[in-house]
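How it folds:
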Amino acid sequence: MTHAATIREHIDAILPDLIAMRRDLHAHPELGYEEHRTSGVIRDVLTSAGIEHVGDLAGGTGVLGHLPGTAAKAVGLRADINALPIVEQTGLAWASTHEGRMHACGHDGHTTILAGTARVLAELAKTEPLPNPVSFLFQPAEEGGGGGERMVQDGCLDGSVLGPAVDCMYGLHGWPVLQEHIVSSRPGPMLAAADRFNITITGLGGHAAMPHGTRDPIIAATALIQAIQSIVARNVDPVQGAVISVTTINAGSAFNIIPETCTLSGTVRALHQESLDLVRTRLKEVVDAVPAAHGCVGSLDYLVGYPVTRNDPAEVEIVHTTARDVVGAERVQAMESPIMGAEDFSYYCEQVPSCFFALGLLPPDQDEMPSLHHPCFDFNDAVIATGVELFCQLALKQRTA
């Protein structure tokens, strides 16, 4: 439909605006389901571009924008808009103005890229109909809040909110370990399923000098942690793999008191449902059995979290082929192995063929940069134009019926 040079001209024309938008979002971070200002900024951009949209989705801050096209079904593009509860330490002029909150995962960049994509496609649509309808999903609460699932539940993919049903989905994430403009993805599992658990061990407290009169929940907890680690080491197929991490342990109030209770919490990660089901079953069994062997009672509160982010092989090939045209073949890399982090883009993958991909952020003059979720992380504005062009080309790609 449209030559790449025309797309780049449109991007160049608005790039200063996009950088200003990204830095404004960075300075005003909002946590999951609290992104009211952010949602307002997005809606203002869509309104100014003449893009039809619906707000107040997914708990109140999600926004769905839409541009019509000639095909029967839409291409979906997604950005996550929430920040994290982290105290920023960048010292930048556009650092967070909200103490204890910051954009430490690059969602300010993702949001800006999708907003820029919407603006460019709206300009292109003024001269020639788009080959595909395009739906723009600005979703809240990716960091543990499941905003993607709520966007799906609200009908953002099935055509009941705005535009026709979405036929395929694309999402990107800034990747600090990859050089600027590198694009990387993989077919099948890319990111893990992620569950959470809380365990309470109840014993009998008493004086630390007379432990024989107590049932010590701390001793039971230490044995339980060892048993939990053996689940992966001795029950899960090593080829499939899984991760169990106990990340908190809390008990006691004084050096000479054996407490009544001890609590643990942590996470379970897996790339295959068989492994995940096995871990869930075995965790319940060891929580029941190990504290009991020490005269205590174990109670498990298990919280099922995000499913596996599973990319469709055909969509991965489309992303990689498109990226070769945008950034050059030398900057397209197949991701060799999945990553045990999790993403609620997974909920879109469960509904339609989808591809989630990484976009490199590391400047060429640096050997490393602060990682995601680090208090010194800042999105690299140099890749905004690349992200916009990638999304535009994916949206314009002719689809077979």
Remarks:
- Residues 185 and 337 are 10 Å apart (CA to CA).
- The mean pLDDT is 97.
- The first strand starts at residue 52 and ends at 57.
- The radius of gyration is 24 Å.
